[in-house]
Amino acid sequence: QGQLEESGGGSVQAGGSLKLSCALAHYRHSSYCLAWFRQAPGKELEGVGSFDTEVGTSYADSVKGRFTISKDNVENILSLEMTSLKPEDTAMYFCAATLAKALCQGPRGPPTRGFGYWGRGTQVTVSS
After folding, report:
1. What is the dihedral of CA 25, 34, 78, 118, to 10 degrees?
2. pLDDT for 2-23, tens place per residue?
3. At CA 64, angle to CA 61 and CA 67, rounded to 5?
4. Within 13 Å, how many C-alpha atoms sit on residue 71's CB side?
5. Which of 3, 25, 87, 100 has CA 20 to 30 A from 117's CA?
6. Rounded CA gap, 24 and 97, in Å?
7. What is the pLDDT averaged over residues 88-108?
8. Are 34 and 27 in contact (CB under 8 A)?
9. pLDDT per residue over 47-67, tens digit each?
10. DSSP states along 13-33
11. H or E element, residue 72
């Protein structure tokens, strides 16, 4: 079905902002639960937040109030707007999709299992 493709990563100082984009290609349909994940060196994959057309958004406690996920239905892009960035936000960020809509219903972001479609990631580095 094609690949999800992230962009927008880069280096920023603590307190700064960055916006990531994920080109959805074939995954733009409302049947999909969409999500952002991140993985820092030496650490486990972490669910950042999810987006579902019917349920809305859900975020991990670590990013709640600082990160916002939105979807542009015209451009077919899933965005992750990150503000008040901290050094601990440094990670490779991935977008992912699944037809298992229930995975978008958790109150604290998506689980790390169950997403079958992934992008290759974009690096975010936050310096102190």
Report:
1. -60
2. 689 999 999 999 999 999 999 9
3. 135
4. 23
5. 87
6. 9
7. 95
8. yes
9. 999 999 999 999 999 999 999
10. ETT--EEEEEE-GGG-STTSE
11. strand 67-72
Query: CA–CA separation, 128 vs 12, rounded Å?
Result: 9
6 neighbors 94 (Cβ within 8 angstroms): yes
Closest C-alpha among 74, 31, 76, 79 to residue 54 = 31
Query: Does residue 122 have a pLDDT over 70?
Result: yes
Residue 39 has pLDDT above 90, yes or no: yes
Question: Could you count the other beta carbons within 10 Å of the beta carbon of residue 59?
Answer: 21
- What is the rounded distance in angstroms from the CA atom of residue 100 to the CA atom of residue 108? 17
> Residue 21 contacts by C-beta under 8 Å, 6 or more apart in sequence?
6, 7, 8, 77, 78, 79, 80
